[in-house]
Amino acid sequence: MPTITMDNSSTHVARFTWLEINLTGVVENFLLAQKNVGNKVKVFPVVKADGYGLGALPISRALVAAGAPGLCVGLVEEAEELRQGGIEVPLIVFAGLTPGTEQFIIDLDLTPFIYTLDAAKALNNLAVALNKKVSCYIKVDTGMGRIGFSQKEFVSAIKEIKTMPGIKIAGLVSHLSCSDEEQNGEVTNKQIDTMQEILTAPELVEVNQGFNSLANSGGILYHPNSHMKWVRPGIMLYGASPAYPRLTSKHDGVVGVVNWFSRIIQITQVSAGTPLGYGHSYTTNKTSKIAQIPVGYGDGYSRSLSNKGYVLIAGIKAPIVGRVCMDITAVDVTDIPDAKVGSLVTILGKDGSQQISIEMMASWLDTIPYEVICNIGKRVPRYYPSKK
Ligand SMILES: *Cc1c(COP(=O)(O)O)cnc(C)c1O
């Protein structure tokens, strides 16, 4: 049975709902990414959005200890947290170079993606004033239809950036829009071709240091021709498949790392015809044993799971009955004789032969695995057991 490994210095009471994140598994998934791309390609793990909700700092420390040569974040604030936590490897900032962040980029020694000329100018002005040269990646839109210089703007943008003494072009980067399509790689192949073509632009060749990157998890797992010089795995590190719902993590060979637990705080016996919870959205049809679990939408346990989905108790499925509240969710344990106050509840993860995967919860919520883990609330304490 999983145990709580409390931080001794913590003055917090151990909450009856908590997350256990298996850092060894995260590292295994990082090594799987490395194996997929071969040892000539660098793997820069993506720990944006607080490590997809699981805790950027402990995850980053584990990955750096395992050899990650650099990390990627979304925002400058996220990079700042890592620097303050003692992370010294290069930190790539995806979309965080917004007006006012230039000083932080320079002070924290960050490497931003540049996707507008205005941002390049502002960064260059400050860099020149401080007599610095900032390494940057030039982001192009090869078909994602999101941020980046368009193919049309690209040459004139490079011509201008080339004249900026405060900016050094580390490489060209782009993002794949459909890399989760394992079989049908048409769009991805087209993006790769576009990127290759842009890379030959003489204006760029003159100044590019050549550390170019295109692949996310989907590219790493399914499109070897997208690997280039360095790759940016996110979701696969956290034990879910980028290709859900067509494929699951099992297919990709990634290991699960997220376990979300709770404990029963009350059990009641109710007769048939008893309405339960807000709005009386559920009424028992027989004498039932109902367990209350201290987890709710205040913890990121979505209200859309009301009367849908289940948890595991003593290795058996216990369906959610009635509405998920802010702090409490009720489940039916009529068929689980072992269910008692204090019994372990598995919200995500394995219990005996049963498992609730991130993908499964994503299907209940009609979303993708990314959102399921990103949404787990800050109120839920995260623990990082050293070994099972
Ligand atoms: C989030 C992100 C990634 C990682 O994507 P996954 O699908 O989670 O592997 C890579 N590159 C960029 C630019 C991103 O925004």
Report on this structure.
The protein has helices at residues 23-37, 48-52, 56-65, 76-84, 102-107, 117-129, 151-162, 186-199, 202-207, 217-222, 249-252, 358-364, 369-374; strands spanning 17-21, 42-43, 71-73, 91-93, 110-114, 134-139, 167-173, 230-231, 258-263, 266-270, 275-276, 282-283, 288-293, 310-313, 316-319, 329-332, 344-351, 354-356, 382-383. It has 388 residues and is α/β, with parallel strands linked by helices. The strands form 5 sheets. Strands 1, 9, 14, 15, 17, 18 and 19 form a 7-stranded mixed beta sheet that branches. A 5-stranded parallel beta sheet has the order 3-4-5-6-7. A 3-stranded antiparallel beta sheet has the order 10-13-16, with no helix packed on it. β5 (110-114), α6 and β6 (134-139) form a beta-alpha-beta unit. The termini are close together. Pyridoxal-5'-phosphate is lined by residues 46, 48, 94, 175, 216-218, 232-235, 242.
Question: What distance separates the N and C termini?
Answer: 9 Å
Named once each, the bound ligands are: pyridoxal-5'-phosphate
Overall mean pLDDT: 94
Please give the radius of gyration in angstroms.
Answer: 24 Å
Largest sheet: 7 strands, mixed
Strand composition percent: 15-25%
Poorly predicted regions are 4-11
What is the strand tally? 19
Main structural class? alpha/beta
**Portion of residues within helices:** 25-40%
Annotation field: number of helices: 13
Gross morphology is: elongated
Topology readout:
Blueprint: E1 17-21, H1 23-37, E2 42-43, H2 48-52, H3 56-65, E3 71-73, H4 76-84, E4 91-93, H5 102-107, E5 110-114, H6 117-129, E6 134-139, H7 151-162, E7 167-173, H8 186-199, H9 202-207, H10 217-222, E8 230-231, H11 249-252, E9 258-263, E10 266-270, E11 275-276, E12 282-283, E13 288-293, E14 310-313, E15 316-319, E16 329-332, E17 344-351, E18 354-356, H12 358-364, H13 369-374, E19 382-383
Parallel strand pairs: 1-19, 2-8, 3-4, 4-5, 5-6, 6-7
Antiparallel strand pairs: 1-9, 9-17, 10-13, 11-12, 13-16, 14-15, 14-17, 17-18
Bound molecules: pyridoxal-5'-phosphate.
